[in-house]
Task: inverse folding
């Protein structure tokens, strides 16, 4: 019998080690798996490679990605909009790395990773600093440049310039869903869907916090936003979710 | 610059842009002053606002309690209108890159007289690009809404952008607090001055070269 | 006001001319827009490039893709499973062309076209006749080879061979949905979804037949399988659909 | 060949393969005899059958009126079981290529002793590939179900496939009406003979070289 429902978050997260790559759903604070992140912060993991659209705002007492950054658990952040002032300070000091990825490219790279594709050509960022090898990923002391984004391979197709982007295959994904069933089928709610299904598709192991679980059956087939094969563990967090 | 303060307010600028939207258009609005557009309903015109993380049919800010799952590109609470749809971020950018956005409206740090747009990074500043590069690569039209001058009083309409580009040659129109410009056959063209603003004043506050083809108060 | 609902199929199809490329949803007879195809057959169009998964079975009185083939309206069929015996005869006689595309690659090429991507690398078909330039697309008289599938560019990524596939951007799509609203938002039913949303995404002009239309409002945002911007025209066909 | 007729029937072959499925697996079944697998329920094991155009949770053929929107890869009417999900064909093949299928079971025209699979084209015949190339490129395991001999009585397990390949070196196991083979460290290995079938008879009807490591009636 298939049953991906777990009694608590802690057991689902034991595979995540220092240095793991973890994709996390959410846009700003919308659809961020706050409870899973809190549970992850209870563990002694450092040096994570986090793949998420935003870096949190860096506010006092903030949950979510901002908490991971504040507790200095992140070595590298692949995102489109880091925002977090403290993380920027450490970035310019050479303590952490930022891989800046256009938002649509970030979404598509996760989907490509989850779809077994080897890469894709996109017009996004062609002719910009995010494609020409000048964007600094990591500074050294005194502001020297230690690492930049690689210069992207470009190709003219039907008269237009495209750049080659690679798939993302993070070790883990942390995902927030609205509804789940024991097969791991998921349904999201409005703008909280955003990167969540894409992170789930891409990861080697996907852990979901769901507002509600269909304990007495399964979700209707046509109401499912992401089918169960992309999901490994589901934890119910009804009542815990910040609203 | 005090001169710039005599032009349109942010709300007036949003109203001015809203006047040019066409009934039925699907429109993405970027962070900053473009986020005021969904507040500017025009009788007889139905505009579908697209929010890049995965919503269509975004409306004004809520009157009552906000729904944390319904936010705009700036993470502010908004509402959904009739016809709204939700989807994941890859489909959202398929809409953008696939040419299904009639328009995207973005803020800008600089616009070049060649149509280049710079809106994501002040050199030496904190980087953050969001969906801007995807949007300018895919939308059928790109309009810029911005103040005519930057905070230091320097013209934002320049011969060439000195800041890193969001996209080369992508801008179709520029709406500032002082004027409306349009790229006509690739040539930056002044089409309209804000009420009380003279063409001479625009000329004094604009570094970019441009043609003049005024057509009164509205395009 | 946005209203993509049209009173009948005929007016929606006038843009389709002889030589147009038309993607059509469906898998076998499941989810095929039969009424739109019938309406298309009322027009004098020939030499179509049809992009669809199957070629119909070639049975007497068959509707769907099989009818288009039987009436000799198709010059080129891009598909994974042609099946149709009569079409095969004309293929070997050099009268029609078959671009054979693996099913997953066909789906992904439509999605790439609809997503503004320039192409993608897939492991599918690497090391086979569908990638090495030997598959015959068009025969001439006496069985001579007039055209083959191009040899696909291949690339080794992380030790695995991938081939480069191009996006499909058909002029038109004919799509069958279960529910639609005036904004063009669509919902499909079970296995009838298949290629329908992908054909809709890819095409320059998408025409939908819907079993039912939400005449008194719109579909709930989270119940929509494909949002309206990918749809141009919707025709209601309740009661006409073969069940 | 009359000899082949003394092996397993199609239903017995399906039962034999079903015995080796693991509880919880997500399994794609291809056109032909693999489509019998969803009919072979095993108590205590829940198998999720994947249908390539966009369904998960496919069950046996319906007892009553068929639903035309619920068909298998062979376009036959089937049912959906608890936990079923529907999606479009691009997501369906994302499941396949993305490594989320524990297994795909396909028919074959030929299997090479090097694991090559040929199942889509007899040279000179009518071409049709369906999803087979995608499935063998992505599934974690590829099992073949086939008759041991072709209609002309020739061995289908060959030194090398003479028909165009579906995928090179992709096969993990081969279940025929006469025997079960497994690739063990890349070496084709006879693991089991059908009831009443001797290893000598398998040897006489198999062109491919193989090792023998029998382990009784079941693996």
Result:
């Amino acid at each position: 019998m298939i049953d991906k429902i777990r009694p608590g978050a802690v057991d689902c997260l034991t595979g995540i080690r220092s240095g793991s790559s973890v994709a996390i759903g959410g846009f700003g604070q919308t659809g961020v798996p706050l409870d899973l992140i809190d549970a992850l912060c209870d563990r002694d993991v450092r040096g994570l490679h986090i793949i998420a659209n935003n870096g949190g705002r860096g506010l006092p007492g903030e949950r979510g990605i901002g908490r991971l950054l504040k507790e200095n658990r992140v070595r590298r952040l692949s995102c489109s909009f880091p925002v977090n002032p403290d993380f920027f300070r450490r970035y310019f000091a050479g303590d952490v790395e930022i891989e800046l990825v256009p938002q649509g490219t970030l979404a598509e790279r996760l989907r490509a990773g989850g779809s077994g594709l080897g890469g894709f050509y996109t017009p996004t960022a062609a002719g910009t600093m995010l494609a020409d090898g000048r964007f600094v990923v990591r500074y050294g002391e005194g502001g020297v440049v230690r690492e930049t984004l690689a210069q992207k391979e470009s190709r003219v197709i039907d008269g237009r310039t495209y750049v080659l982007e690679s798939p993302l295959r993070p070790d883990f994904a942390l995902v927030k869903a609205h509804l789940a069933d024991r097969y791991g089928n998921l349904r999201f709610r409005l703008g909280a869907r955003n990167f969540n299904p894409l992170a789930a598709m891409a990861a080697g192991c996907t852990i979901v916090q769901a507002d509600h679980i269909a304990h007495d059956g399964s979700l209707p087939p046509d109401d499912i936003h992401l089918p169960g094969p992309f999901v490994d563990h589901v934890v119910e967090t009804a009542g815990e979710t910040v609203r | 610059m005090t001169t710039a303060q005599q032009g349109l307010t942010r709300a007036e600028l949003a109203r001015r842009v809203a006047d040019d939207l066409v009934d039925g258009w699907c429109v993405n609005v970027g962070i900053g002053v473009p986020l005021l557009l969904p507040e500017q309903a025009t009788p007889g015109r139905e505009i579908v606002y697209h929010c890049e993380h995965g919503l269509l049919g975004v409306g004004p800010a809520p009157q009552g309690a906000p729904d944390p799952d319904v936010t705009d590109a700036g993470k502010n609470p908004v509402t959904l209108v009739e016809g709204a749809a939700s989807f994941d971020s890859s489909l959202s950018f398929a809409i953008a890159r696939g040419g299904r956005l009639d328009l995207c409206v973005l803020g800008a740090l600089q616009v070049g007289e060649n149509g280049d747009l710079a809106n994501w990074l002040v050199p030496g500043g904190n980087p953050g690009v969001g969906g801007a590069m995807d949007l300018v690569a895919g939308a059928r039209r790109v309009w810029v809404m911005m103040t005519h001058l930057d905070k230091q009083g320097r013209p934002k309409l320049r011969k060439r952008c000195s800041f890193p580009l969001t996209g080369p040659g992508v801008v179709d129109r520029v709406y500032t607090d002082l004027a409306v410009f349009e790229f006509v056959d690739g040539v930056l063209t002044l089409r309209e001055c804000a009420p009380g603003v003279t063409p001479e004043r625009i000329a004094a506050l604009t570094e970019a070269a441009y043609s003049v083809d005024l057509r009164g108060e509205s395009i």
Notes: Chain C has six helices and 14 strands. Helices of chain C lie at 9-12, 34-41, 65-70, 85-92, 103-114, 196-202. The domain at 5-119+166-236 of chain C is CATH 3.40.1080.10 (Glutaconate Coenzyme A-transferase). The first helix of chain C runs from residue 9 to 12.
